[in-house]
Specification:
Length: 491
């Protein structure tokens, strides 16, 4: 029977020890923010950890794409005090420290995801949900106490938390979190493509996003991704010497599937070689599957995880508790017999099925190998086929005379949208799909669409900008407007 303390589910690990280790996990991360409140989860984490900083125990906290986690280890009484004080701070965040913590957070320069992961998620989801990891928003100095308090009250409620305990359970646990219902989480509509595509940027790396089905009792999707990672690491690091970091990340995708991203960084001058290795690994594994040695290695790793884990069923209980909160399918127990019987063709089938919807990434100067493998070059944000009817604006004559890019640029304002034609194509942001509007000190205004497009409105770039700005002011709610952050890491 499930155990709860003040509405928080408790998962107990059976190790016998005198001290207590706890992990309090909330099913909320950066993907649950908005463009206007990017960084609010990290700010809240800093604020509440300040309130327990004087406890003489080991403690830490982390915010990633999907979760916010607090951990502590020490005497049972001290750990209990940590949990109670932490939860009280979540219910009443010390927002008087927000301005000071904004400077600390800016100096920290932390990222919730690797840049390749962030970019590919932005291509997939635009300026919402997981795609926000690519954007900066208003900066920490643009957050208000109201943003922090509202976020805490919505997401840091008992029904959105799981507490793992190893060792004695502290007495007198209150876990007095904000009261409220389980938050409603709606995954944003994902952008899809007709066939595999690749996008380019200036990140010295390569990677690919693949949408795979939920894991089964042999964790076939995970096995497939880890096999791909192993092949890329072998070629990029151990054979070619091109990469140091080769990583994997994932977020929940549509219909219970998951968006997996595998990436490899490239040392200077190796961008093309890394793209070639990633493309070759993906296409060969999708066609032929792993070698016997590669498959045996991955199965052995999975079997080791079963043996090395202190209590796999308890681990699965935590995973399933989080899955229920987030709305994902629960994981079945791993079948050791079926795991040992996985074939190379099983992994090939998973990757081959995912390949038509793949989104690749390569350095902007290393895209030919992707195109040669059948990937279509795509713009990072959506483009439409034709300019709509509406009032048009061009850059001034001087800009068109001296700036090559300005000669093809054209803005169109319609009843429904703001449209920009540039060298990449025709971009459109509907008035009702504006994620935010940023004002820069130099007079430029950037309009961010939930679809991932960004359109500049600059009086120096085109005649009629004042008219568009007036319409933006009228159509876009004031709470979506923000100023560009004034803080830098040096501050």
């Amino acid at each position: 029977m499930d155990e709860y303390i003040n509405g928080v589910q408790v998962v107990r690990h059976g190790e016998q020890q005198r001290h207590t280790d706890v992990t309090l996990t909330f099913a909320v991360g950066s993907r649950d923010e908005t463009l206007r409140t990017i960084g609010v989860a990290h700010a809240l984490e800093h604020l509440v950890m300040y309130t327990v900083r004087d406890l003489p125990i080991e403690m830490n906290a982390e915010v990633d794409l999907l979760t916010t986690t607090f951990v502590a280890s020490g005497s049972t009484a001290r750990v209990g005090e940590f949990l109670n004080r932490l939860c009280r701070a979540l219910a009443a965040p010390p927002v008087d420290r927000l301005d000071l913590e904004a400077r600390v957070l800016t100096a920290e320069e932390g990222n919730v995801a690797h840049p390749v992961v962030a970019l590919l998620l932005n291509v997939r989801y635009g300026a919402r949900g997981p795609g926000l990891a690519w954007l900066e928003g208003p900066g920490y100095d643009g957050l208000t106490p109201e943003h922090v308090i509202s976020f805490a009250n919505e997401w840091f409620v008992p029904a959105n938390a799981v507490l793992q305990v190893t060792g004695p359970l502290p007495e007198g646990l209150e876990l007095a979190l904000p009261s409220g219902p389980a938050p409603a989480r709606v995954l944003p509509v994902a952008r899809s493509f007709d066939g595999p595509v690749v996008v380019g940027h200036g990140i010295p790396a390569s990677g690919v996003l693949l949408t795979l089905p939920p894991d089964d009792d042999v964790r076939l999707s995970t096995l497939s991704i880890m096999t791909l990672r192993q092949r890329i690491e072998e070629k990029c690091r151990f054979v070619g010497g091109h990469s140091y970091e080769i990583g994997v990340d994932l977020v929940a995708g549509p219909g219970g599937a998951s968006d997996w991203i595998v990436y490899a960084e490239a040392r200077e001058g190796s961008e093309d070689a890394v793209s070639r290795a990633v493309v070759a690994a993906l296409t060969d594994l999708a066609e032929n599957g792993p070698t016997a040695a590669e498959l045996a290695h991955q199965i052995a790793r999975a079997e080791e995880n079963l043996v090395a884990t202190d209590d796999p069923e308890v681990r699965r209980a935590f995973s399933n508790a989080m899955s229920r909160i987030i709305g994902e399918p629960e994981l079945p127990s791993v079948s050791a017999t079926r795991l040992a019987a996985v074939q190379s063709s099983d992994i090939a089938a998973v990757l081959k099925t995912a390949l038509p919807g793949a989104i690749g990434y390569g350095d902007e100067h290393a895209l030919e190998v992707w195109q040669a493998a059948g990937f279509t070059l795509a713009a990072a944000c959506p483009v439409i086929a034709e300019l709509p009817e509406g009032r048009t604006f061009k850059p001034p004559l001087t800009a068109r005379a001296f700036v090559k890019e300005a000669r093809s640029m054209l803005w169109v304002r319609t009843d429904d949208a703001l449209v920009l034609r540039d060298a990449d194509g025709i971009h459109q942001i509907r008035w009702d799909e504006v994620a935010g509007v940023m004002r820069s000190p130099d007079g430029m205004t950037l309009v961010f669409g939930t679809n991932g497009c960004t359109i500049p409105v600059d009086p120096d770039m085109f005649r009629g900008a004042t008219v568009v700005l007036e319409e933006l002011t009228r159509r876009v709610p004031s709470e979506l407007w923000f100023d560009e952050s004034k803080l830098t890491s040096d501050d």
